């Protein structure tokens, strides 16, 4: 199976091409958030360097959210355009699933965190199946959550499993002191090379999700924001106030 | 000669649109998916919601545009997309989608200026119209009086110093309780009002005969409404709407006629969302006729935000050899005549 993968959900822009079990090229830049200008030129570069024929692609795997709203849409719209032109499906890969999957094989609980501002992180809690060591298990679904609360939940999961925790992502960077203060289970922070979004992981996990029938049409794909827009929040609050 | 087909995409505000245009002048399809019902709930366009809706609808709109034109993606010569000015998040959806489409299909990509699109809407169905000609662009975000010197070449004579004409329509409509969007509502209710009932100011900008200012007019309307309220006088909404509208139309026509007198051109065009205002169209028609000037205005469907106009503008850019690369970005404050 041949997959084009992109992730533009956070500070890192990442593009990858995956061919039949081999990750033939990955290009990631964790520098500035100028994904609109950089993401597609990066993918173009990977395509040229790997002499990949886009017409051979079976699917586009895209980090589907959560993430920066604008970043999500740059990735989503780019994927939707490519998938439309190539007549192939999109495999939505939840951003935090792909981040956690970087630690495939660990016996620790994995807690990726993305800085979501407003004192929150986008985070999920993961582990790998005890019997095979590689199947991603979701202990807590991705959501926008108070950072301290999430640290508590990760510790709880670790204690239940009698293991440690891996914290990763720019949310873990932002709340490093809070984690140090609150964690009451053994933990590590991910090393820099596995601390951010990576389209290679999106591709590999994307193939697994494709096998589970989780691909969608180019038209049907929309990012998972996990938060309504500010205007909708205010309007819903007003409606709630009026209702009570 | 072989026909040149442009697939055009527009998402600068709250309309998701796609069109296929042949040789810059013939519209094969023009699909517009409006979000107005959603934004009406909030009294105006909410950028984040607009961006989300564009993302949801862009594939349907583009594939419908190709289908209605009876054209496959591989048949088009280039993909044109609006990259500014407009709401950055909204623009980014169209730009990113168009780039993905161009990258995967190998088709050339042409970034188009939204206002240039509005101006080029006049080329649609008017094969005889060619530059040079003066044009007034009036919409919710823009008020520009320009000379179209050549395809893609503009001299800006005047612009608004504060509110765009369409913005003033929206604000006044809200103040008299007509709601959003203000332009069409004021246009309609004005039919029942007396345009001479209230004299609102026609603002002149001291150092420029062509620049516009509408914030003073808007304030005058608000002051009028306030003073009526203080004195317990019942406001006739139709009279306010008609009088306000007449003040806007007078200023727009005056400036345009000054430009025509100076330039001596025998043709004149209007463009933009406000150019579908019936009173404005009639006023320009009368003034142009009186001077023996041929007056052009796009059909109302090509005045509102649409992709056919982007296809018309994109065609002329494409023929000039303009190509955008994959680093094309949305430019919310893109100036007319700049790339």
Can you tell me about this structure?
The complex is a heterodimer of chains A (244) and B (339). With 244 residues, chain A is α/β, with parallel strands linked by helices. Chain A folds into two domains: 127 residues, Nucleotidyltransferase, domain 5 (2-Layer Sandwich); 87 residues, ATPase, nucleotide binding domain (Nucleotidyltransferase, domain 5, 2-Layer Sandwich), CATH 3.30.420. Chain A has eight helices and ten strands. Chain B folds into two domains: 135 residues, Nucleotidyltransferase, domain 5 (2-Layer Sandwich), CATH 3.30.420.40; 168 residues, ATPase, nucleotide binding domain (Nucleotidyltransferase, domain 5, 2-Layer Sandwich), CATH 3.30.420.40. In chain B, a hairpin with a 4-residue loop joins strand 1 and strand 2. The longest helix of chain B has 27 residues. Chain B starts with a strand and ends in a 19-residue tail after the last helix. The chains are: A alpha/beta (244), B alpha/beta (339).
Outline the secondary-structure elements.
The complex is a heterodimer of chains A (244) and B (339).
Chain A: E1 2-7, E2 12-19, E3 22-30, H1 35-49, E4 59-63, H2 69-86, E5 90-93, H3 95-101, E6 109-115, E7 120-128, E8 136-146, H4 147-161, E9 165-168, H5 170-174, H6 176-182, E10 187-189, H7 199-211, H8 230-243
Parallel strand pairs in A: 1-4, 4-5, 6-9, 9-10
Antiparallel strand pairs in A: 1-2, 2-3, 6-7, 7-8
Helix pairs in contact in A: 1-2, 3-7
Chain B: E1 5-10, E2 15-22, E3 26-34, H1 36-40, H2 47-69, E4 78-84, H3 88-105, E5 109-113, H4 114-120, E6 133-138, E7 143-150, E8 153-159, H5 165-175, H6 182-189, H7 215-230, H8 237-263, E9 267-271, H9 278-290, E10 294-296, H10 300-303, H11 308-320
Helix pairs in contact in B: 2-3, 4-11, 5-6, 5-7, 5-8, 8-9
């Amino acid at each position: 199976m041949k997959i084009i993968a992109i992730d533009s959900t956070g500070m890192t822009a990442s593009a990858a091409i995956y061919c039949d079990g081999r990750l033939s090229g990955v290009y990631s830049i964790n520098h500035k958030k100028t994904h609109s200008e950089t993401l597609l030129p990066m993918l173009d570069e990977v395509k040229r360097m790997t002499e990949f024929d886009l017409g051979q692609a079976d699917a586009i795997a895209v980090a589907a959210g959560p993430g920066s709203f604008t970043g999500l849409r740059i990735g989503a719209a780019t994927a939707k355009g490519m998938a439309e032109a190539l007549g192939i499906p999109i495999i939505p890969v939840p951003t935090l699933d792909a981040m956690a999957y970087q630690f495939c094989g660990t016996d620790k609980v994995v807690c990726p965190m993305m800085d979501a501002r407003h004192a929150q992180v986008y985070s999920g809690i993961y582990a790998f199946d005890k019997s095979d060591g590689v199947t991603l298990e979701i202990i807590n679904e991705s959501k926008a959550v108070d950072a301290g609360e999430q640290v508590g939940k990760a510790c709880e999961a670790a204690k239940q499993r009698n293991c440690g925790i891996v914290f990763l992502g720019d949310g873990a960077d932002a709340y490093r002191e809070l984690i140090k203060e609150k964690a009451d289970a053994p933990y590590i922070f991910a090393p820099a090379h596995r601390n951010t979004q990576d389209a290679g992981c999106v591709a590999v996990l994307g193939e697994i999700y494709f096998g589970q029938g989780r691909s969608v049409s180019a038209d049907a794909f929309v990012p998972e924001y996990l938060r309504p827009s500010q205007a909708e929040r205010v309007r819903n609050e007003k409606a709630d106030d009026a209702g009570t | 000669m072989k026909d040149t087909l442009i697939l055009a995409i527009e998402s600068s505000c709250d309309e998701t649109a796609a069109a296929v245009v042949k040789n810059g002048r013939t519209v094969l399809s023009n699909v517009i998916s409006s979000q107005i019902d959603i934004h009406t709930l909030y009294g105006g366009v909410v950028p984040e919601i607009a961006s989300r809706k564009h993302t949801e609808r862009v594939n349907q709109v583009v594939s419908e545009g190709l289908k209605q034109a009876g054209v496959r993606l591989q048949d088009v010569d280039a993909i044109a997309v609006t990259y500014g000015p407009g709401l950055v998040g909204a623009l980014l959806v169209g730009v990113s989608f168009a780039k993905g489409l161009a990258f995967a299909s190998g088709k050339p990509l042409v970034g188009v200026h939204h206002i240039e699109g509005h101006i080029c809407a006049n080329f649609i169905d008017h094969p005889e119209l060619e530059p040079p000609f003066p044009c007034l662009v009036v919409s919710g975000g823009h008020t520009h009086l320009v000379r179209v010197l050549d395809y893609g070449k503009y001299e800006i004579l005047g612009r608004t110093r504060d509110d765009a004409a369409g913005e003033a329509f929206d604000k006044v409509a809200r103040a008299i309780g007509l709601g959003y969007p203000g332009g069409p509502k004021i246009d309609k209710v004005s039919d029942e009002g007396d345009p001479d009932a209230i004299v609102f100011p026609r603002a002149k900008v001291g150092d420029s005969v062509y620049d516009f200012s509408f914030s003073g007019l808007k304030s005058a309307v608000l002051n009028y409404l306030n003073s009526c309220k203080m004195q317990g006088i019942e406001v006739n909404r139709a009279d306010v709407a008609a009088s306000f509208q007449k003040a806007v139309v007078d200023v727009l026509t005056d400036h345009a006629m000054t430009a025509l007198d100076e330039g001596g051109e025998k043709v004149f065009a209007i463009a933009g969302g406000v150019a579908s205002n019936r009173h404005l169209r009639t006023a320009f028609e009368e003034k142009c006729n009186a001077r023996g000037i041929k007056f052009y205005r796009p059909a109302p469907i090509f005045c509102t935000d649409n992709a056919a106009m982007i296809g018309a503008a994109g065609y002329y850019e494409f023929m000039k050899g303009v190509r955008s690369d994959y680093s094309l970005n949305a430019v919310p404050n893109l100036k007319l005549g700049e790339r």
